[in-house]
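G., the chain you wanted modeled:
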Amino acid sequence: MRIPLGETLTSLLGMGPMPFTKIVRCHELVGEAWRIGRDRPAGEWTHSEDSLRRTAERRADTWAKAEVVATIEPTVATINGLHAEARFIDHQLAALRERRYVGPHGESYTTAEAHGRHAEWSALVEEQEQAGSRAHRRVSPGVKKLLLGLLALDVIVLTFLMAKFLNVDLRRALQSADSVLRAVTALLFGILGTVGVALTMKLFGRRHRAYRAAHGGWDFTGGGSPKGGTRTLVAELLLCGLLALALGVAMAWRLVLDGPADDRFLTAVMAALFALVIGAVAYLSYQSEFADGSTTTEAIDVLAPQLHGTHRTEEALRAKREILLRQTARLVGQLLRDSARLRAEANRRVAESPHDKAIRYARSVHQYCGYGSTLPAPRLSLDDLDLALAQATSWADPGPEQAATRDEDVQGNQDDDGLAVVA
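Predicted structure as tokens:
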């Protein structure tokens, strides 16, 4: 059967059924089919049909490549950057697991050793406290702040004492260079005396933690202390007492000398009061260190800040890694949607092209199969798109190293939900 003349005329007027630009090709396709002289399966092409379809497929391929460059590749580059950041965080987490820790006596611990020692010491403190021991009790921060205030007052008192000792008239201290020098000397001696006594008391208090008994006081029995340790403790306690006593007596004697001669009782009371204040400040300085835990809590204090710092850093890195992987998963989902849209549009451009319309019309004429007959699927070359998708999905999925990192994270922290990404 030939193409009706009327359909050719209406197609020339742009009214169909043949595409206006493919009227000649439609006649060519019908003529080719008559020359072949037999029916063919719908999945086979004639030479002219294949040439016509190839033209549409090349145009669709060109459009698809341009779309891949414009929309797909920027997303793939972003995913690649996020993946690189996640990999860098993986290396940082691995480095944290290989970190070395410094013990209370300068020991070098691995991460496992540090956690083991910290857990061992913490369990020991908890066990002894449950048994009624007070050796590990700590001094509250409020008491330490109060002690700093008392030390500030003690500086004023001791400066006044040194001013009297050096015959400094505080009302005329700035009238001559000698008076200024004496006043500055009194202030320096007051500061150095207070700080020196406080530091000395703190030093002895820190040393005597090793002799702290279960009841919270000193252990004079020698249990658990080195040979001769009790004698050292007694000698150092006597030295601390003599130091505080000497400072208090010096303050009291200065007040006795400068006090009013007609009221010796008031002078004696004030001297005793100031001596008591000096002794109390020295005692509090000592107790702020001696009563602040034990040698075990001191060892815990060395490791705990390092472990807490590592934990905070690790948690921050895990949170950042989780954000990066979630962003990657979102972009991969967007990439899959864009690629599906791109494939559908490329196929539509072929299926709705004038070339396919001409082939379907010609087949409806010479094969009596109707205009809506199904043609073979377009043969598109989307290698660039397939490569981009393969790279993006491989970056999003956790590899062996990332899976190992995730397993270690879950074992180290059972509360962690994991960092796997579902693309």
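The two ends are 55 Å apart (CA to CA).

Shout if anything looks off.
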